[in-house]
Amino acid sequence: MTPTGQAIPFFSPQVPQAEEFHTAEAAVDRLQVLYDLATTFLAARFADTMRVGPTQQHFRAYYPEIRITTTSFLQTDSRLSFGHVAGPGQYSTTVTRPDLFRSYLIQQIDLLLKNHGVPIWIGVSQTPIPIHFAVKGDDDTVVLSHGAAGFSLRDMFDVPDLNTTNDDIVNGPTIEGPDGTIPLAPFTAQRVDYSLARLAHYTATAPEHFQNYVLLTNYQFYVAEFEAYARTQLADPSSGYISFVSSGNSELTDPDGVIAPVARLPQMPSYHLKRADGSGITLVNIGVGPSNAKTATDHIAVLRPHSWLMVGHCAGLRNSQRLGDFVLAHAYLREDKVLDDDLPVWVPIPALAEIQIALETAVADVTKLQGYELKRIMRTGTVATVDNRNWELRDQSGPVQRLSQSRAVALDMESATIAANGYRFRVPYGTLLCVSDKPLHGELKLPGMASDFYKSQVAQHLMIGIKATELLRNMPFERIHSRKLRSFDETAFL
Q1: CB atoms inside a 10 Å sphere around CB 50
Q2: Residues of the chain with pLDDT > 70: what percent?
């Protein structure tokens, strides 16, 4: 309250009234206008405040939103699992970064227009844009921590609110928004903004560089292999790849170019082999452990990739396996614990046929082995994921019994987490691992134990992941994003 007992007034930019649109391109153009007006206003007011000091004013601008109202239960003739709403009602979603999500938004809105034959309404929402997200695109602007600027930031601007930044939509039954509307999209604007900021922090590359097909690994060796492959693709004009981006946003278009070194490697360095339409490949070294796996996929999910595949190392659990053998996961034993509150362990995580076929085909193509001969180097079975790297040092009777009962053939610390989060976020997932040790058979992960066979398989492993993503890219869109990952009452947006 001000000294006079009156509330601090809110000052907001002038924006166009909500308007209906009949084409997706025009609707997204209006979203961009509204977003730019809001963020430009907030950035300018913040710069003024930092220059001249605080005032008895509160500056507020709102995210744009998409609304659609339907009045019929008419079933849409759609082979897609998305792009339509289930029944009559008013649906809405807040939107951020229309520039980054332009293609995605056009695709989703166009499907709604075609399937329902009613206009899309574009206007401003009632959700304020936090100042941190409004100025994040300006490298010269830093939002200081609370009190560091000599005044209370929250008195003048809106800040991120964890009460409205959550996964309630994807985790449970459809929930109504504060205004009674039904969610159109799996994420709200503030949830997306939060993840975009964290993604840039953890990976040291801008979200703009991320591609639709993501490879996740727990082994830094693959980075050098990925860069070498990227350079061969850039040297081939027919490859379709246009550039390679490394951590630190260093971008190459010349296959012989030099990548600028980074002063400090980020927690989860990412590398991007880009195509003009975003259908290239992103490689992220997520490091070790289920917490890292959850963190990475929590944030990548807001970019709505078409798949993510785990290509990492694992412990082989069967005596018949050799170091360097591959494991194609067709089931998961979840003892990672990090997702128990979001997705209970009693929820089955199914293997996705399209992903499985792509991975097996890629193994056959790269190794030149077919059919029965392929079984010499690849085992299909359950992958167990645990949260304790040194589980071998404890009483083994319980863990080993569970591993046997689950028919586990491999154990790691990331794969089940990645698969479960793919299931939760409706992102197609798959796992192909390479056996790097056999703890139950005395072959511990120690220096000098790798055989020539193991080394050759490791060199091929990343190429198999790359080949699998290229096979998925050529697959019909509706086959990848199938109903297998959709619940009873789903959002219209993918």
Answers
A1: 16
A2: 92
